[in-house]
């Protein structure tokens, strides 16, 4: 089916993004949608929510996962946001689990949840999974909805790698050039990926450094997500909707 006909039939690609506070979720979404602006937010009836009202609700601890985040630069994506499960919040976990279960069973493809991005920041001291995150990956059945883990703020590990390399008396300039690759190699054998493999592993994971910088590359996230989609129609919808990786569009077009 032609991508334009797919978009006409399904409309938008729907993603749930999960992550604790300061995990870099908004920055990731802005990069994917190629914008520096904040998203417009709509409630479950399609009415746009005043940001001031929304902020007041958040300050009172209220958060509605049903709200839709849409960026003007790319309205083909609709995002749902979860605050994550800090402090092992049972109520938030139950809300997310119910949302995923219900959206996975939607008979209408446009209303169905198509992918889940789970953000784990690497700039925090422990760099380990919270109790809530462990619960999600061990108890939350997402069915056919692919889960992609985003290790955000990965550049924090570049700094650690640089320190390690210079401690071996490697010159600073060389250590700086080799730090990103060394960080990825060390991470590949580290506790985070081992933990995921021991539970319900995600479909894939990506390491995302420097997303807050101009020209940041979210291509690996786009390519990883496209590769997890078993439904050919959804895969074509996702690829035609994203605007940051034209090479991927050409690659999949040649496969047809």
Give a short overview.
This protein is α/β, with parallel strands linked by helices and 256 residues long. It has helices spanning 3-10, 25-32, 51-59, 90-104, 131-139, 155-167, 172-188, 191-198, 219-228, 232-241, 246-255; strands at residues 13-19, 40-42, 68-71, 74-82, 115-121, 147-152, 204-208.
Task: Tell me what you see in this structure.
By secondary structure, the chain is α/β, with parallel strands linked by helices. Helix content is 46%, strand content 16%. It is built from 11 helices and 7 strands. The protein has helices spanning 3-10, 25-32, 51-59, 90-104, 131-139, 155-167, 172-188, 191-198, 219-228, 232-241, 246-255, and strands spanning 13-19, 40-42, 68-71, 74-82, 115-121, 147-152, 204-208. Strands 2-3-4-1-5-6-7 form a 7-stranded mixed beta sheet. A hairpin with a 2-residue loop joins strand 3 (68-71) and strand 4 (74-82). Helix 1 (3-10) packs across helix 10 (232-241) and helix 6 packs across helix 7. The N and C termini lie close together (10 Å). The relative contact order is 0.16.
Strand order of the largest sheet: 2-3-4-1-5-6-7
What is the makeup of the main sheet?
7 strands, mixed
Query: Structural class per helix/strand content?
Result: alpha/beta
What do the pLDDT scores average to? Answer: 85
Number of strands: 7
Pick out its properties.
alpha/beta; 7-stranded mixed β-sheet; globular; 256 residues; 46% helix; single chain
How is the topology of this model organized?
Layout: H1 3-10, E1 13-19, H2 25-32, E2 40-42, H3 51-59, E3 68-71, E4 74-82, H4 90-104, E5 115-121, H5 131-139, E6 147-152, H6 155-167, H7 172-188, H8 191-198, E7 204-208, H9 219-228, H10 232-241, H11 246-255
Parallel strand pairs: 1-4, 1-5, 5-6, 6-7
Antiparallel strand pairs: 2-3, 3-4
Helix pairs in contact: 1-10, 6-7
């Amino acid at each position: 089916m032609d991508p334009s006909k797919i978009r006409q039939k399904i409309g938008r690609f729907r993603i749930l993004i999960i992550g604790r506070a300061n995990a870099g979720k908004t920055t990731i979404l802005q990069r994917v949608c190629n914008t520096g602006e904040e998203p417009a937010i709509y409630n479950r009836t399609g009415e746009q929510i005043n940001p001031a009202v929304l902020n007041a609700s958040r300050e009172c601890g209220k958060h509605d996962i049903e709200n839709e985040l849409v960026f003007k630069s790319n309205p083909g994506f609709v995002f749902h946001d979860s605050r994550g499960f800090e402090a092992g919040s049972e109520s938030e976990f139950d809300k997310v689990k119910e949302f995923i279960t219900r959206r996975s069973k939607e008979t209408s493809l446009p209303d169905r949840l198509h992918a889940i991005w789970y953000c784990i920041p690497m700039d925090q001291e422990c760099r380990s999974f919270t109790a809530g995150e462990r619960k999600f990956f061990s108890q939350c059945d997402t069915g056919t909805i692919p889960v992609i883990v985003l290790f955000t703020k990965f550049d924090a590990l570049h700094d650690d790698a640089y320190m390690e390399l210079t401690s071996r008396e490697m010159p600073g300039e060389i250590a700086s050039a080799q730090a990103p690759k060394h960080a990825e190699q060390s991470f590949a054998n580290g506790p985070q990926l081992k933990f995921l493999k021991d539970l319900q592993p995600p479909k894939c994971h990506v390491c995302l450094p420097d997303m807050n910088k101009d020209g940041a590359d979210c291509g690996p996230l786009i390519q990883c997500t496209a590769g997890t989609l078993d439904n050919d129609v959804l895969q074509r919808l996702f690829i035609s909707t994203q605007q940051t990786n034209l090479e991927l569009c050409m690659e999949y077009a040649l496969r047809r």
